[in-house]
Write a structure and sequence with these properties.
Elongation Factor Tu (Ef-tu), domain 3; 2 domains; 45% strand; mainly beta; six-stranded antiparallel beta barrel; four-stranded antiparallel β-sheet; 200 residues
Length: 200
């Protein structure tokens, strides 16, 4: 197994031997289970699940009959390893010094303007521009094409997107508390779920 699901706890500082400080994130990796084994087109997928759904539907109860509960979040990996559905994953999956990639959902920023969302400079502050400092400016062209192109960078909902960061190093592993410390700032608010995959 090379995949675990963690829950972001918060950030700390890690000091190196030279005295330099590095930002790091504490992640809780407890209660990871092999939720089910899936065989599709001759390929074998192992699904990992974490936490329990409070009010599961009957169809999910049937899918996770061997696990005896419905996981709140799952992640899959293609693997030829032998695994038993319902078995608990330990802390030996990830060790200190491992290089991992982390996938999660970014924080929601609500409705944002073009300056915050796309880094636009806005209009000039002088020459009669009383209310155009953070405006996007012209968005169209002439008679041809006579419309606004799809994908035009404009104001709108910002955040809540799936993001993956590769090449992160595991700095510490605490088997007593079932936590690991990963270098850098990870996406999402505290208590959000993260999928951690160890590089091959």
């Amino acid at each position: 197994m090379k995949t675990l699901i963690g829950k972001k706890i918060g950030m700390i500082q890690i000091f190196t031997e030279k005295g330099d400080s590095k930002p790091a994130t504490i992640v809780d990796i407890s209660e990871n289970y092999v939720s089910r084994i899936i065989n599709v087109d001759g390929k074998k997928f192992i699904e990992v699940g974490k936490d329990k759904v409070k009010h599961p539907v009957k169809s999910d109860l049937g899918n996770y009959k061997e696990l005896a509960f419905v996981p709140r979040i799952t992640a899959r990996e293609e693997s030829k390893e032998e695994a038993v559905a319902g078995s608990k994953l330990g802390n030996d999956v990830i060790n200190v010094g491992d290089i991992v990639q982390v996938t999660g959902t970014t924080k929601g920023k609500g409705f944002a303007g073009v300056v915050k969302r796309h880094g636009f400079h806005g209009g000039p502050r002088t020459h009669g521009q009383s209310d155009r400092e953070r405006a996007p400016g012209s968005i169209g062209n002439r008679t041809i094409p006579g419309r606004v192109y799809k994908g035009k960078r404009m104001a709108g909902h910002m955040g809540v997107i799936t993001q993956t960061i590769k090449g992160l190093k595991v700095l510490m592993v605490n088997p007593e508390n079932n936590t690991i410390v990963i270098e850098g700032s990870l996406m999402g608010p505290n208590k959000s779920y993260l999928t951690i995959r160890k590089h091959k």
